[in-house]
Design brief:
The complex is a heterodimer of chains A (392) and B (400). Chain A is an alpha+beta fold and 392 residues long. Chain A is built from three helices and 24 strands. Helix content of chain A is 31%, strand content 34%. In chain B, a hairpin with a 2-residue loop joins strand 7 and strand 8. In chain B, helix 9 packs parallel to helix 12. The radius of gyration of chain B is 31 Å and the shape is elongated. The chains are: A alpha+beta (392), B alpha+beta (400).
């Protein structure tokens, strides 16, 4: 063997070795790199994750009860108001004049009452006179100094006057009731006028000022909207697939979208008895332990994590190791150099991706977590610390 | 016995090896082109594999969800779950878009999956790092080709998502890496353009007197609210119970639900025959030309290599070497050149394949076929060269 042969072999043999390495270590024939973990007996604390919006439990929409024009709005958005504070007024248009008319009518009715009273007095006087006349002629008839006809005329006179008195008393009653009616009508107008004043029903914060003075609004259209800032809560929506165990009084962690790093403590106030059938979500109300200051804007998106009680220890695997093969859910067990698929029954999961296994694997078993390709029972595998292409 | 071919190669081994390496690079290009074609087809199959479905239920009379757009109401799956033979059914949405990542954006296919846990239809089948989605919102599992890293925050439309898991070979039929997010987020992403678009939409709506009527307060808000929801999905992925054939399950859904249902075989046919047909043919055509050109070049190299030695061959004949020995020498050299070329080509293709932006699948079967074809070409080319060598007049060795 001379130098040339060695040189040629020196080129060809490494080339051939590289070729064999390349053919076996890349492409479909290469072993699948996998990472493994040991099934641990662990207690996990499942948690539920939902998103929601900040809402006010009590919000008041204040507007007129009849159509009209807005005369003034005296508050601005962001103002804090007290119960009974004047927020705005509607234009009264002709209310003053109608009240004045009713007052005049009331005076007239009062005069009517006095006239009816005078009439009653007059008729009463006439009746007294007619009575005494009737008695006198009665005694004259017995003495024989008056005719029967005269006595009857006097008796009839008395009857007429008595009837007149009844009429006068009835008229007095009419006049009195009229006075009451007219007074009540005036009260109605005054009440209605007062109703044009838009008052705060409770202390709160002005959130919306819908219209400005001069705008005509229909009955029921809100002019100003108030919320009670102390009643802020979160209306949270939980995906129904992941709402197991949601119940009132569970502690919750609330993260406002505007303050991603800050967690606010709260708790579940109630789970709504009616779920959203369209979006397939369960709704719940979560209250803040203390209302954050400054107030979060109503309608801001929040993320809510509800912690459930810790579960008793059970075999736990990462959810990345659970796969469905041939219609069955399971994990790949590492037995020496070969893989074996073990069907499992999954239990609770937590938000960090740990899954409790109810049956199928025992603690201490080695299972595949990550793999470079999908696995089969005959796949050649190579255990690695970390898959190629994944930075630490 | 002294190998004449071996002696000759040793005589000028540098020339021989470098010719082989040059030939090898050409063969490497051909193998890579075959790999590009295979990779294209494999991208389509990977899309079907990683959806984990046996049946695809899509809008009637469409070739959805990959080859055409398809839109279904998101409660259709409830009815499908009740059909015989259906084990699991899950909504899915697909949307190819730019996903913002810091300063840049990455073209990817955003897949909205029901966050029902591992093994549900549509979920990524295996991970290479991190974990599967556990929260119903704002978490993403991305293909490693997106270059996203675990824990990074990416932006899809208006919302920010945290990358919690990485997977591999989860691509669309055009090779865009997938980003898996929860279905509700994806539905929102399909609808929500961006804040500006929403503001403009609201303004347009409020400018429309039909919707913004003074006498009906609240109508405008209702209209805007109804514009801001999206209850559509692109397809329902169905897994069937053991003991049923896909067609047995598909037929009642087509008949009674009046929806289009594709089985795996039909879907593959759709993707490969219709969706990537033209680009695959383009690559295929190029592959054919490249193969022919490579074959021609290999043949010419061997032929000229032999003609370059014509004087030596004439001397061999002059000293009475048998024709068989000479023919053997030429053929052995040709085959040897072919083997070196193949080895170099295979190594080269394997080395540069991972640097291609799209998947290049180097199938051992393709390599075997390539090797076989190369040997045939080498033998044929050497036959031509042998004919030329044997016809040479021994007198040329002295006459010149």
């Amino acid at each position: 063997m001379n130098r040339r042969t060695w040189a040629l072999l020196g080129v060809l043999i490494p080339m051939l070795a590289l070729f064999i390495y390349v053919a076996l270590r890349s492409g479909p024939l290469a072993p699948v790199p996998v990472t493994s973990t040991t099934v641990e007996q662990l207690s996990i604390t499942p948690a539920l994750y939902g998103i929601g919006t900040v809402e006010a439990r009590y919000s008041h929409k204040i507007g007129p009860t009849t159509a009209g024009r807005v005369k003034g709005v005296y508050v601005q958005v962001g103002d804090r108001v007290t119960a009974g504070q004047l927020l705005g007024e509607m234009d009264p248009v002709d209310f003053e004049e109608r009240i004045a008319a009713q007052e005049a009518a009331q005076k007239r009715a009062a005069a009517g009452v006095r006239a009816a009273e005078a009439l009653v007095q007059e008729v009463t006087a006439r009746q007294d006179y007619a009575e005494s006349q009737a008695r006198r002629y009665e005694s004259l008839l017995r003495a024989g100094s008056a005719s029967n006809e005269t006595v009857e005329a006097k008796a009839q006179e008395l009857q007429v006057v008595t009837a007149n008195l009844a009429t006068a008393r009835a008229n007095l009653e009419v006049a009195r009731q009229e006075l009451v009616r007219v007074g009540a009508d005036r009260e109605v107008l005054i009440q209605q006028k007062a109703n044009l004043r838009l008052l705060a029903p409770a202390a709160g914060l002005v959130t919306v000022r819908n219209v400005d003075p001069g705008t005509t609004v229909v009955a029921g259209q809100p002019v100003v909207e108030l919320i009670d800032p102390a009643s802020l809560w979160v209306n949270v929506r939980f995906e129904q697939l992941r709402a197991t165990g949601l119940r009132p009084d569970l502690p919750a962690r609330i993260v406002l979208r505007s303050q991603a790093g800050r967690t606010i403590a709260g708790q579940v106030l109630r789970v709504e008895p009616v779920a959203d059938t369209v979006t397939e979500e369960t709704l719940a109300k979560v209250v803040f332990d203390t209302i954050p200051e400054p107030l979060p804007p109503v309608g801001e998106l929040v993320e809510v994590t509800v912690a459930l009680p810790a579960l008793p220890a059970a075999p736990v695997v990462p959810n990345a190791s659970v796969q469905r093969v041939g219609g069955r859910l399971g994990v790949w067990l590492i037995k020496g150099n070969s893989l074996q698929f073990a069907p499992i029954k999954m239990g609770a999961t937590d938000l960090d991706g740990r899954v409790q296994i109810l049956e199928g694997v025992e603690p201490g078993a080695q299972v595949v977590v990550y793999s470079g390709r999908s696995l089969g029972a005959h796949a050649r595998v190579k255990l690695v610390e970390r898959l190629p292409g994944v930075s630490p | 016995m002294i190998s004449l071919a071996g002696r000759d190669i040793l005589h000028s081994w540098g020339k021989f090896v470098f010719t082989g390496v040059g030939l090898g690079l050409l063969i490497g290009v051909t193998l890579t082109m075959a790999g590009v074609y295979r990779g294209m087809v494999d991208d389509g199959k990977a899309l079907l594999d990683n959806s984990g479905a046996d049946l695809w239920v899509v809008q009637k009379d469409t070739l959805g969800p990959y080859a055409e757009s398809s839109s279904l109401y998101d409660d259709v799956y409830r009815g499908i779950l009740g059909m015989p033979g259906v084990a699991r059914a899950a909504n899915v949405t697909y949307l190819t878009m730019q996903v913002r990542h810091g300063e840049t954006d990455v073209r990817s296919m955003v897949v909205g999956v029901v966050p029902g846990g591992p093994g549900e239809p549509g979920q990524p089948g295996y991970l290479i790092a991190g974990r599967q989605i556990t929260r119903g919102h704002y978490e993403a599992v991305a293909d490693v080709a997106t270059k996203f890293k675990l824990g990074e925050r990416i932006q899809i439309r208006r919302n920010i998502y945290t990358v919690v898991g990485l997977t591999r070979r989860m691509v669309s039929s055009s090779g865009d890496p997938m980003v898996f997010i929860a279905l509700k987020d994806a539905q929102a992403a399909q609808f929500l353009k961006d804040n500006d678009a929403i503001v403009h939409q609201r303004r347009r709506t409020s400018a429309n007197p039909t919707y913004n009527r003074p006498g009906v307060p609240g109508l405008l808000n209702s209209v805007i609210a109804s514009q801001s929801i999206n209850t559509s999905v692109n397809a329902v992925l169905v897994q069937i119970l053991p003991g049923f054939t896909p067609e047995e399950v598909a037929e009642p859904i087509r008949r009674w639900k009046r929806l289009q249902v594709y089985t795996r075989a039909q879907m593959e046919d759709l993707l490969i025959r219709k969706l990537i047909a033209t680009s695959a043919k383009q690559i295929g055509m190029f592959l054919v030309i490249l193969a022919i050109v490579s074959a021609a070049i290999v043949a010419f190299i061997i032929y000229t290599l032999t003609l370059g030695k014509i004087r030596e061959i004439a001397v061999l004949k002059l000293i009475g070497t048998k024709n068989r020995t000479i023919a053997g020498m030429i053929m052995q050299q040709a085959v040897g050149l072919g083997i070196i070329g193949f080895v170099v080509g295979k190594i080269a293709a394997t080395v540069w394949a991972p640097f291609f932006p799209k998947y290049v699948l180097l199938e051992p079967v393709d390599a075997a076929w390539g090797f076989f074809a190369l040997m045939v070409i080498c033998v044929l080319a050497s036959v031509l060269a042998i004919r030329a060598a044997l016809k040479v007049d021994p007198a040329e060795a002295i006459g010149g």
